[in-house]
Design brief:
2 domains; binds 3-methyl-2-oxobutanoic acid; alpha/beta; TIM Barrel; 8-stranded parallel beta barrel
């Protein structure tokens, strides 16, 4: 008999129940060990296509493939027991038709074991969101700044700065909510617009640079850990791991160059690493 209490994974209805109550805590994760560390503290982990930039050094997310998302999605699901895991649909894998989106999202869910997928786009994605959610695939929508459209938007820019732009973005929010998305990410959005959308729709909004008025918050993990070479202005760094790693590497290099270590000590620490 197992001595470990069974941890119940957070479900889609659990996330929906946060609407207007306690804020949803969400972060991105791309590999098993960090997912394991984050699991007790978050409600939702997103295997974001930002992994193209964060893990692979790409300039944007456009080169990310379904295979990359599946490989990292599997790792994050393996590393978690509790958080609801959402995997991003990469550019080119879902926009063409609801049928193609369904086929690729099925592959993501079957191969990773994730609970839901996320896709960028507002009103234009309504039919696809409906097609998937009516067939058993929970969808998180993503509106405002949609990085896969960076070439059309002309860069990574805050959306809804001028009130004239609000109606189209409010319509995006209404359409994705009515099409069956169970939550919607609002990225880089002016606060009054994010507040208005959050009050107007009955699914939770999860903000990233969209103000505390949202029903929850998400950040790219490496940004908030101080590990990313460039972070958006709105990101608060909760740790400075980039500096800590550089310091550790420097200390290690000094030690290795300065004196010889007994082989035994080195072997012991390697073994410990493997056993844990
Ligand atoms: O890919 C990603 O990490 C995202 C977040 C920025 C929400 O979509």
């Amino acid at each position: 008999m197992s001595v470990h209490a069974q941890v119940k994974r957070i479900t889609v209805p659990d996330i929906k129940a946060h609407k207007g109550t306690t804020p949803i805590v969400a972060l991105t994760a791309y590999h098993a060990h960090t997912a394991r560390i984050l699991d007790p503290y978050v409600d939702l982990l997103l295997v974001g296509d930002t992994l193209g930039m964060v893990m692979y050094g790409m300039d944007d997310t456009l080169g990310v493939t379904l295979e990359m998302m599946i490989a990292h999605g599997k790792a994050v699901v393996r590393g978690t027991d509790r958080a609801l895991v959402v995997v991003d649909m990469p550019f080119g894998s879902y926009e063409e038709s609801p049928e193609i989106a369904f086929r690729n999202a099925c592959q993501v869910m079957k191969e990773t074991g994730c609970t839901a997928v996320k896709m960028e786009g507002g009103a234009r994605m309504g039919p696809t969101i409906r097609f998937l959610s009516e067939r058993g695939i929970p969808v998180v929508a993503h509106i405002g700044l949609t990085p896969q459209s960076t070439n059309v938007l002309g860069g990574f820019k805050t959306q809804g700065r001028v009130e004239d732009d609000w109606a189209a973005i409010e319509n995006d929010a209404q359409v994705v909510a009515h099409s069956g998305a169970f939550a919607v990410v609002l990225e880089a959005m002016a606060e009054p617009l994010a507040a208005k959308i959050t009050a107007a729709i009955d699914i939770p909004t999860i903000g990233i640079g969209a103000s505390p008025t949202c029903d929850g918050q998400i950040l790219v993990l490496e940004d908030m850990l101080g590990l990313s070479p460039r972070t958006p202005k709105f990101v608060k760094e909760f740790a400075t791991l980039g500096a800590a790693i550089a310091g550790a590497a420097e200390a290690y290099a000094e030690e290795v160059r300065g004196r010889a270590f007994p082989a035994k000590e080195h072997t012991y620490s390697m073994k410990k690493l493997v056993d844990e």
